[in-house]
Amino acid sequence: MDNRSTSASAEVIECYPPQRIDFDASGVPSGIVNSFEEAITCHSNSCYVASAIMVRRTLEEICEEEGAEGGNLKARIKDLRDQVTLPKKLFEGMQDLRLLGNDAAHIEAWTYQNIGEEELEVAITFTKELLKAVYQYEELIGELKSLKASNNG
To answer: Which DSSP helix (H) or strand (E) runs through 91?
Structure first.
């Protein structure tokens, strides 16, 4: 006799392989991809502190790739404004991600009281948008222009 519940509501406790947040790495430099993929892998394995640290490292990689200078990540993000054109809100968000990474790496720093799944889902989603803005939108614009040219020719 089967004793399983016939209830329509079931809760997934754990799945294997872990579900990963999707990420299109096209056009993104490999060092940045490696750090960000590790952040996503950590998140999918419920290693949220490690994921926050790797999101912060992704910011470091972006600054390095774009030639931003400064004595710390806060200064490099500020200098990045001279290297890439982004909306002000994306730069502000980068500083928030930096603080989340600081909280993950340093037990005495607590801007964020909790570093968990929700915080990292938002951080990863924001980082994906940042990577699109820095590395992927130009390629899309180029594709649009080439389609326009071929349709007009």
So the answer is: helix 88-105
Cα distance between residue 126 and residue 87, in whole Å: 13
What does the DSSP assignment read for 27-50?
A: TS-HHHHHHHHHHHHHHHTT-HHH
Rg (CA), the chain: 19
pTM of the model: 0.80
Report the C-alpha gap between 30 and 16 in whole angstroms. 27
2-50 per-position pLDDT tens digit: 555 555 678 877 666 667 888 999 999 999 999 999 999 999 999 999 9
Between CA 28 and CA 31 the distance in angstroms is 9
Residue 92: which of 146, 136, 130 has the closest Cα?
Answer: 130
What's the rounded Cα separation, in Å, for the pair 135 and 33? 11
